[in-house]
Specification:
This protein is of the alpha/beta class and about 500 residues long. It is about 35% helix and about 25% strand. It contains 17 helices and 22 strands.
Length: about 500
């Protein structure tokens, strides 16, 4: 047995977030760790990596007990973690990041030797990357490879990856999987945390499911179906991951023709009708988010935009919102939520002028509107004043939707609506989107998740290299057809 974590228990503020959880890994095993937000996954991997000390239990590597709450010692013993939020220093080179904190040479750095060793590690991974290149100029996928190279430079025997594919294109995910399988063949044990269940079945030998801080099951992935895995995760059947749609689209609400914003956007055209969901698909960097930002007036652009038949030229997002076009960002932590503010404040923040009386905010109206939104969107929080940053990913996303729907727009643009959201909350968000279109709202949904695009869209518009390359009706949508339009020639 290479890694053994036994009877791990952890409490925060008197609340038990992990209760008697045990896992074991053999050399060369890829273990998927899954569960809803709040299931205890992050706490478990932080304990295993030494970042958090448990109240009870122990972690062993090759039968040697590891110290609690000492990540440096744990890393030196052979357990490394790559977090979803990368920890690289952007203005240092690849080699300098690989050896950060363990630089070779004193008093003068052995820069050439660090580059040589970093290059050898990257070559062993099958990654073509200049060790002298600045990290700032690398894609997210390549930055992840630098994180993995850093772990291997410390002779890692256990590698933990936390949501590594959240911002990767399908091609980048495939490249990541090739690297992980090479590491598997070298005897590394890998813990892979993901909400994307298709990745679990593609990559993992075994899977551990947590629910409400407790261990539910550990089994070989081959013994599970997607349906049984979801049932273990949420404790109930989700009969339809994507609820059925009975859309009868009305008139065009948003019309975008030949929109351009060099160098990000070359020529984007799409139309969204009342009561329908249009999926905007494409690889990372295809221009989908840029098209949305240009539509909202956040990017200077040329082209034709019409809302309810009226030609508009928005000078900024505030004008777009006033005209009935709302945008929910893909980066809810960086650009969406105010994490230290309360849930109620996050919901009402863009509507304060409507909640004022004689120039002063009416706290009664503010709290009442926020409470109504929390109930309507089934946002689960301890109180209206709970800090938004402490909510689960699914509840954070529902809070953002509630903010922009407090005064219903004509068009809602949602960018990656379920990124970092567990399968149970995903189903709830899909239900919300369906109810909104039933009420006549037009929705443009940007998503990198092909099953989501195919399961929720009435039509799919595909982009490649800043241009619209085609449109598919729901009955014609397949993953192969989307990728044929999305992949570079």
């Amino acid at each position: 047995m290479l890694l053994a974590a036994r009877d791990l228990t952890k409490q925060f503020g008197g609340v038990t977030v992990l209760s008697g959880v045990s896992i074991e890994l053999e050399p060369g095993e890829i273990r998927a760790l899954v569960g809803e937000n709040g299931a205890g996954k992050s706490t478990l991997i932080k304990i295993v990596s030494g970042a958090v000390a448990p109240e009870r239990g122990a972690v062993f590597l090759n039968d040697v007990r590891l110290p609690h709450g000492d990540p440096r010692a744990t890393r030196n013993r052979g357990i490394s973690i790559v977090y979803q939020e990368l920890t690289l220093v952007q203005d240092l080179s690849v080699a300098e990041n690989v050896f950060l904190g363990r630089e070779l040479g004193a008093p003068l750095l052995q820069t050439a030797e660090m580059r040589r060793q970093a290059g050898r590690i990257l070559q062993d991974l099958g990654v073509s990357l200049d060790p002298a290149a600045l990290v700032r100029g690398l894609s997210v996928a390549r930055q992840q490879m630098v994180e993995i190279a850093r772990a291997l430079s410390m002779d890692a025997r256990v590698l933990i990856l936390d949501e590594p594919s959240a911002t990767l294109s399908p091609a980048d995910v495939a490249s990541l999987f090739l690297v992980l399988r090479r590491l598997q063949q070298r005897g590394l044990a890998i813990i892979y945390v993901s909400h994307r269940l298709e990745e679990v079945f593609q990559l993992a030998d075994t899977v551990t499911v947590l629910r409400d801080g407790c261990h539910v099951i550990t089994t070989r992935t081959s013994t599970l179906t997607r349906e049984t895995l979801i049932r273990h995760m949420v404790g109930r059947d989700i009969t339809a991951e994507f609820p059925p749609r009975s859309s009868t689209p009305g008139t065009a609400v948003l019309q975008v023709d030949h929109l351009s914003s060099p160098p990000r956007l070359a020529d984007a055209s799409y139309e969204v009708k009342r009561g329908e969901i249009v999926g905007l698909a494409g690889l990372v960097g295809s221009g989908r988010t840029s098209a949305a930002m240009a539509t909202m007036g956040a990017l200077e652009s040329r082209g034709h935009i019409a809302v309810n038949g009226r030609v508009r030229r928005f000078r900024g997002p505030a004008e777009a919102i006033a005209a009935g076009v709302a945008y929910v960002t893909e980066d809810r932590k960086g650009h969406g939520l105010f994490p230290t503010m309360g849930l109620d404040e996050n919901i009402t923040v863009t509507h304060l002028s409507r909640l004022c009386r004689l120039g002063l905010l009416s706290m009664r109206r503010h709290r009442a509107r926020a409470a109504d939104a929390v109930r309507d969107f089934d946002i689960r929080a301890s109180s209206l004043s709970q800090r938004a940053g402490t909510l689960s990913g699914g509840n954070q996303q529902k809070a953002l939707l509630a903010r922009f729907l407090l005064e219903p727009p004509h068009v809602l643009i949602v960018d990656e609506p379920t990124r970092g959201v567990d399968v149970g909350a995903r189903s709830e968000i899909y239900g919300i989107l369906n109810r909104l279109t039933d009420r006549g709202l037009a929705i443009l949904m940007i998503s990198s998740d092909l099953p989501e695009v195919m399961g929720m869209s009435d039509r799919v518009v595909v982009m490649r290299e800043g241009r619209t390359t085609g449109e598919l009706a729901r009955r014609d949508v397949t993953a192969e057809r989307i990728m044929a339009l999305a992949a570079p020639n």
